[in-house]
Amino acid sequence: MATLQSTAPPEADEVPRPPVVRRKRTVAQRFRHDWPLLLLAFPVVAHLAVFHYWPSAWNIIAFMDYSPYRPFWENPFVGFAWFERLFNDPYFTPALLNTLKFAALNLLCMFPLSVLLALAMNSIISIKVRSTFQSIVYLPHFFSWVLVVTVFVQVLGADGLVSNWIMDGGGERLNFTSNPDSFLFLVWLQWAWKDAGWGMIIFLAALASINPSLYEAAASDGAGRWRRLWHITLPGIRPVIILLLILQIGGILSVGFEQYQLQRQAVGYQATEVLDTYVYYQSIVGNQGESFGTAAGLFKGVIGLILILVANNIAHRLGEQGIYQKS
Amino acid sequence: MTAIAMKPKRRTKNRPVWDEEPSLAGKAVKALFLICYAAAIVLPIWAVVATSFASEEALNRAGGSLLILPTDVSPQAYREIFSGGALTDSLILTLTLTVVGTAISLALTICGAYALSRTGSLLHRPILWIILLTFLFGPGMFPSFLVVQKLGLFNSYWSLILPGAVGTFNIIILRAFFMNSIPGELIDAAKIDGAGEFRTLFRIVLPMSKAILAVIALFYAVGYWNMYFQAVLYTPGLETQPIQVVLQRMLMSTQGLPEGAQAAAQYQATGEAAPTAALKMAVVVCTIIPIVIMYPFIQRHFTKAVITGAVKG
Description:
A: MetI-like fold; 15 helices; 0% strand; B: mainly alpha; 16 helices; UgpAE/MalFG_permease (chain A); ABC transporter permease subunit (chain A)
């Protein structure tokens, strides 16, 4: 798609100034010229320093036997002891596996649904029908997880609407929203309800930017509906698909927190525990200690960082743009 | 081919000439898919609204969950919400947090995005990297929690606004918009006419960016309005909680769960009745309404914002 391909990554879009002009100006001169911009950027930089980089630096306590009750420099370094304890923790591996399971579900079952929706949407010709449909399917994206879970319990819960219908018909009470075995499916349904429509938006934009004359040319060469889909539509949205895949793979260990925490009581921790809830319940609610919780979070952060770099690298090798360009 | 076979079929208006009319079955499958999907979204929302207006008798007759067709209309649940109790306080708190938080976030985002859109300025690249690096690595839940504690923000409403006030993704979206959609000549012209950076920002750049600013403001506002996790994490000890936390407690209390029993006991202790389905659904409606009101004005700009973000993210 034209808009995506023609736009260079942030580093590359600087307007090259003639080097002569640049060399002539000293830092002091540039400061005198640019101080309003620095002033404008300052609050953001300060905010990130305090709420992003400072906590990031605190990750060092994952390698220490940290206690808040003694001065920071008196905490002894213990190497990877906390990570060892983390990997030996009987609750950690299930949490990690659950996280990967939900991430795989997201990758395999949400993407195709969004693409399918976008293709179906794109073939609606009436603009009125289209925009009505769009308004409807984007809306749940803006609902909170609390709301989504509440609505699901009311509709599909044990005392919910569907359960009542089934019981009126002489059937058994439904226990869909509290059944650990079907939790994966429940999660998928909630995702599909909340976010599949929103996920479609970017594919729609990609579809709209495919040059219609390509279709016309293919059709006059005798390509049918399915061939056009395969040879024009799908290659047309390929950069977007790859971009989103990279983002997804980078965030593979961040499948969210609220959706699982909210249903933990009803479904039980075995099925709902993911890495984020694990950190929360072990180190903030529980008493595993500061260093342990930090080590668990750091593990997640580092794996995420590695995954995003690797995925981006693969995208470059495939000849796609990825998130950032090799510099 | 015979002339009869060549007879043109009835065509949908606006369909491009090269596109053959799809078969009836194909159309039906597609329509069914889209209609089912839309219905699965609309029907529950409709049932929630219908139930929120139901009286207790009507609800009991229906089994206590949801009503598709309201048999009567009673504003009882809404009267209860706005009667000045804990629910009213919670709604006022959430609204305040949303307004204050959105204002702070938007101001920070605009300043950051504009500063970064002026390429080649002093320290431009280091600052850009400071922002971009936040995409690659998150500090983690526990260190963030620790910092909030160290700043003395734990159990303070500021901890619900400040730690997440800057969405670096939004900065990058807005920066991309400033750079790509506002002609550089215009800014140069302003400079030549003697306008400083601030005047350029307020008089030229911002008035041209109303649409995208509205979308970003909506993203921020929805984030604050739907805030749940931060409240659970940073302000568990405060009496008045954001509306999502209150809704979660109501949900638990009627699900018959351990945590719910606690909440139910709380309701008994304060002499309030445990929430009926109507009350719960009325709270749900109250949390949806602000979103639904804002939504139609901003919805048509979504695509642009998302695309700009995807390009630059």
